[in-house]
Structure formats: structure tokens, C-alpha cells
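Page 47, continued from p. 46.
Same chain as before, 179 aa.
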Amino acid sequence: MAGANLWEDLETGPNAPEEIYAVVECLKGERNKYEYDKDIPGVVLDRVLHSNVHYPSDYGFIPQSYYDDEDPFDVLVLVEDQTFPGCVVEARPVALMKMDDDGEQDDKVIAVPTEDPRYDHIEDLADIPQQQLDEIDEFFNTYKNLEAGKEVETQGWEDRQAAMDAIEHAQELYEEHFD
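Result:
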């Protein structure tokens, strides 16, 4: 897909919402906040996180999706080792983290790579270790603390079905706005 726009040209997944594509922007263990710029098209450095925290796993967006915050739908892919910005990961949604970002609903799909056998046993929210959920929640509650005027509040976890329903909602919003 050389030269393709990963948000508009790549389908949502091979079998969405059960299997999706995640376009990685930010990497596990890093503070760099990359964003995909569809006008280039390519990944650009948006900023470096102001707080001394790092992404708990690879983070990006779901192609051909548009969410209530008027951005592509966010996805956090649980990985052992980081991939790279612009990497497309086939993933299985397993949970949904509800979040408010400056008054906008900015939920996050939590997914696992379909091609990593270490995650075959994770099918739903209950399968994710509580410590990992706590770390993800802590990251999103604090990563904007030192940015002037930014307020973020995580609002709890929902299961795999809620994540798939939210993906379908994001696909519908994409079709309404861009098709």
C-alpha cells in the first residue's frame, strides 16, 4: 500500500469489528506522541509528553473510523515489544476504556495482536491482568497533567462486546462524515 492513506484507504479490518487493523502511532515505553497526518500521508511528531510517563503499549487508530471526539478511533494494542510508527497490526478487540478528554468522549479500544500467541488466551476484559489495567488507567489519567489547561478523566472499563459496539459506532460515524 505504498503511498496509501492508512486512515482512508485501509479497511477497518479483515473481519471488523471482531478483527481490526490498528495503525500504530505511539510506541510502548516512549514519551513521543506521534500522529498520523493524512495530508502528508505519514507519521509526524506531534509533541513529547510533558509528564514523565511513557505509553504502556503501542497506541494508534483504527482505519476508516471516526469517533465522538472527531478523530479516528483510538486503539491501544497490548504488545511485548514495540513495533514502529506506521506499522499496521491485525488485532482482536478485548475491552473498552471509557475516557473524557477536555469534555469530549475519547474512549480507547484495548486490543491484542492476532499474530502473537502470547495473547491467544486474552479474549475479554476479565482476561487482562488487573495490574496491566491499572497501569493503562494510570497512564491515561496522568499523561496530560503538566500540559496547561488539559483535563482528562478515565471512566472505567467495559467488555469486548462494548468495544465491538463502539467500533461499529465509529464505522458508522466515518461513513456519515466521509462516504
